[in-house]
Design a protein that fits this description.
By secondary structure, the chain is mainly alpha-helical. 48% of the residues lie in helices and 11% in strands. The protein has a two-stranded antiparallel sheet. It has a two-stranded antiparallel ribbon with strand order 3-4. A hairpin with a 6-residue loop joins strand 1 and strand 2.
Amino acid sequence: MAKLKFYDLDKWFSIYIRLRDADDNGNCRCCSCSKVGFWKDVDAGHFIPRQNKASRFNEKNVFAQCRKCNRFDNGAPAGYAKFLLSRFGENILDELIQLSHQAKKWTQFEIDNMRDYYKQKAKELANEKGLIL
């Protein structure tokens, strides 16, 4: 069985998330601490870690996050949870946790289709906001 190739999907999904969360100047506010950074200098941080395949590419689970919170503060879960609750309401944490417990086996076909979708969406957002990829 061939190993699935997520690299390009991860790349384009991350670019899409950071552009989605960026203002027209390309600045993103960290979902955990509210620090502002340029979209290329922040991460697409996951509330439920990306090892959980069912929630890995769920857009409600991933938001722009400063590198300090994402990489060095274990994702800053308290601030992230507060952000999610304010954005989506009280059921979001249960929804994401429940999703993360579901088994998901990706096919390379699904991965490739999602990669193409997020690549197109990222390019459209960059164009709309006048940002260079």
